[in-house]
Design a protein that fits this description.
The protein has helices at 2-27, 37-56, 63-75, 88-102, 111-120, 134-137, 140-150, 154-167, 175-194, 198-224, 232-245, 250-260, 264-281. By secondary structure, the protein is mainly alpha-helical. The protein has two domains: 1-135, no CATH class; 152-286, no CATH class. Helix 3 (63-75) runs parallel beside helix 5 (111-120). The radius of gyration is 19 Å and the shape is globular. The mean pLDDT is 91.
Length: 286
């Protein structure tokens, strides 16, 4: 384990600060709190966590693989600064190429593989995947795609889905069913590769259920056309108004909601969301 941590630290020493700084600069003119530089950092942290879990299971990785993974993590959604639709993977590929061309001191092992991962990471259709092998579990595409999927779970997942789907023009009432379909596929793909990491995957099942239950309940409120202020529907409306209409940040949204809202469920949800975000906020680089 000590050797793996040394490899990870070495990669982070080289890449983390410049990649995070570049990601922040890319998103400066794009209001997308759900998929900004902090999202890219969280995806890297999930990817790092998967590498550690694989190591515990006896599946080793190389320094080159860690370098490739961290670069792919920090560019996988960069294309959303140009197009919030399905082309963002291809656009992220071009943005990564430009960054490396303009920064020749940064050399990535097997750059074509890294670029392919960035372009293809967002295929969330359900896949028929053969039994996972030690090799398939540590491919860069599986690692980055799974790490991105893990950031779509829990209370962060709720706000991520709501903002990006609204900004893609999906009608409010259609969002819950689209989310649950996408979420099932994401988690099915994750389990098809990483269910052998028993303790880790069990923790992710809890986070998956949190997100799935939220949108199932929300769908019920939309179907019944029920106005209940102490509910998932209220959270949806707060996120829509704050993130999409007022174009606030997520931290501002949380603080404003906790300050003025008196209903139990919104207070509970935004407190949980703040706690999840604080896990990575201490690691953010200036």
């Amino acid at each position: 384990m000590e050797l793996l941590l040394e490899k990870i630290n070495s990669s982070e020493q080289k890449w983390l600060k410049p990649l995070y700084k570049h990601s922040k600069s890319l998103f400066e003119k794009t209001h997308l709190p759900s998929h900004n530089a902090e999202h890219h950092l969280r995806v890297w942290l999930y990817c790092r966590g998967l590498l550690i879990e694989l190591h515990k299971a006896g599946i080793k990785t190389t320094h080159d693989s860690i370098d490739k993974a961290i670069v792919a993590c920090f560019f996988h959604d960069a294309g959303l600064t140009v197009d919030v639709g399905e082309r963002h993977g291809f656009l992220g590929r071009k943005i990564c190429e430009d960054f490396l061309m303009n920064n020749p001191s940064f050399q990535v092992p097997d750059l074509p593989e890294v670029l392919d991962v960035i372009e293809k990471h967002d295929d969330k259709s359900k896949k028929e995947i053969s039994a996972a092998t030690p090799y398939s579990m540590k491919t860069i595409l599986r690692l980055v795609s799974a790490a991105d999927d893990l950031d779509a779970l829990g209370y962060i997942g709720v706000f991520r889905y709501i903002e990006i789907y609204l900004k893609r023009g999906i009608p409010d009432t259609e969002i819950p069913k689209k989310v649950t379909t996408n979420l099932r596929n994401r988690f099915s793909n994750f389990l098809s590769t990483y269910s052998g990491l028993h303790k880790f995957s069990e923790k992710q099942k809890i986070r998956y259920k949190e997100t799935f239950d939220f949108f199932t309940e929300l769908d019920g409120y939309f179907s019944q056309k029920t106005e209940i202020p102490d509910s998932q529907l209220t959270v949806f409306k707060i996120l829509k108004e704050s993130l999409v209409e007022k174009r606030l940040g997520i931290d501002e949204t949380i603080e404003e909601t906790l300050r003025i809202n008196t209903k139990g469920y919104p207070l509970w949800y935004f407190s949980k969301l703040r706690n999840e975000l604080e896990v990575t906020s201490a690691l953010l680089l200036d």
